[in-house]
Amino acid sequence: MCLDTVDRKVRITEGEGWKFFSTKEGKLRNFYESNLQGELIPRVRFLSSRWNADPTRRTIRAEKDRKPYKLGFHVYTNKAPALRDSLTYTQCCVRRVSFRGVLATGTSRCDTVIVAREIYIHPKGK
Question: 50: domain range?
């Protein structure tokens, strides 16, 4: 998923939102961060985006306004858009996440999206 537009100023540094993941045998996997090795499993720690360590993949341009932004985990501020976009895929679930280290904010399909350096996946049902 890429942002359509990027906000000029980031006005948030941390918070909670929603992210969709693929599932395989009950384990979570991040769709877009394919360079994370192994399954993403909820733990008692934040997971860091490894894209930030790769100098060749530090920025990408938004689809509509073409503004650059740093790569990271894309988190929806509302659950409904995350559920809607997850329907595009099979074997998918939406989970509540906490995020910190916000790299950019913007929109995707008119919905607010946060791009964060780190996420914590809350246990199912919490």
Answer: 5-121
Domain count, the chain: 1
CB atoms within 10 A of CB 45: 8
- Is 117 part of a structural domain of the chain? yes
Distance of alpha carbon 7 from alpha carbon 89, whole angstroms: 28
pLDDT attached to residue 35: 46
Q: What is the CA radius of gyration of the chain?
A: 14
- Is the Cβ–Cβ distance between 109 and 64 less than 8 Å? no
Whether residue 126 lies inside any domain: the answer is no
pLDDT at 30 over 90: no
Reported pTM: 0.84
Task: Report the relative pairing of strands 47-48 and 73-76 from DSSP bridges.
Answer: unpaired
